[in-house]
Amino acid sequence: MTRQFKWDSGLGLLGLLLLFVGSYIGLFVAPAERYMGETQRIMYVHVPCAWNAMLLYTLAFIFAIVSLWTHRPKWDAVTTAAVEVGIVLNALLLVQGSIWARATWGVWWDWDVRLTTSLIMVLLFAGVLALRSFVHDAGRRATWTAIATIVAFVDVPLVYFCVRWWRSLHQVQSTPDTVAPMMVVPLRINAFAILFLAIWMMAQRVRVELARRAQDQVAEPERIAPIGGSTNA
Amino acid sequence: MPDGVIVGGWSYVIAAYSVTAAGLIAYAWSLVHRRRKAELE
Q1: Residue A11 near residue A202 (C-beta atoms within 8 A)
Q2: Strand-pair partners of A33
Q3: Domain layout of chain A by residue ranges
Q4: φ, ψ of residue A33 in degrees (nearest 5)
Q5: DSSP strand E in chain A: where?
Q6: Whole-angstrom distance, CA of residue A211 vs CA of residue A224
């Protein structure tokens, strides 16, 4: 039996390769930061996870609008996929950030504005998936998922801009002008690596969702009770 | 060595990269498993 090589498999493998290369440069080639020393190397996985989590939530927001507009199952599937993969990256960035905070601030957690809004962000989007699991009708599930995603997205710009708007322990965004060139290289490589892996993950999640939806449509007639009987659907 | 400079710290770096690898592998595995299950049913 031969399996067809899909475009997303190639992207996933490229992402994996880039993640190895970027992490190797970040761990062993890039210089240690002047004050944070070796602990700053956490940045090469922390920041790409943060960028891509927010990118996926932004895409989910756009997909949710399109889903509401068109009522087509594929847009509900990609919205759900973007939210779920975004949650995984969001959870990883919180754990990485917590480890980095312990090394530099001396605490695992602080109710700092950046940390708190990031925690709220993952909870809001986890709420989208929780809400989704309670709705059995596919059409209503898609509508509620889209509405909840749009509401949850309100926190995403807050996470990005809060370090500029309010006093925060968390540093403001760096630019290529403020860090050594050899720090920018692994950061960018890992950003694309996580992006490609995230696209592969989204493609798998979309297939899961569409397959489930197809099963629901097949199983639907079985839930219809005979004439005169009661329905449990 | 000036004040405020963190010395060492490799254990934190290893922990962060390990958690990232474990998280990505676990989620990727769950996706492949769920996809195969959904396509077989």
Answers
A1: no
A2: A37
A3: 9-216
A4: -75, 150
A5: none
A6: 21
pLDDT beyond 60 at A120:
yes
**Chain B residues near residue A43 by CB distance under 8 angstroms:** none
Distance between CA atoms of A169 and B41, rounded to whole angstroms?
Answer: 50
pTM of the model: 0.89
Cα–Cα distance for residue pair A111/A100, rounded to 1 Å: 15
* Most B-contacting residue of A24, A25, A38 (CB-CB within 10 A), to test interface: A38
A225 backbone dihedrals φ, ψ, rounded to 5°: -75, 155
Whether this model's ipTM surpasses 0.95 comes out as no
CATH number of A9-216: 1.20.120
Q: Which residue has the tokens 């996929």?
A: A81
Residue A109: name the closest of A123, A95, A128 by CA: A95
CA angle, B37 then A199 then A70, to 5°: 85
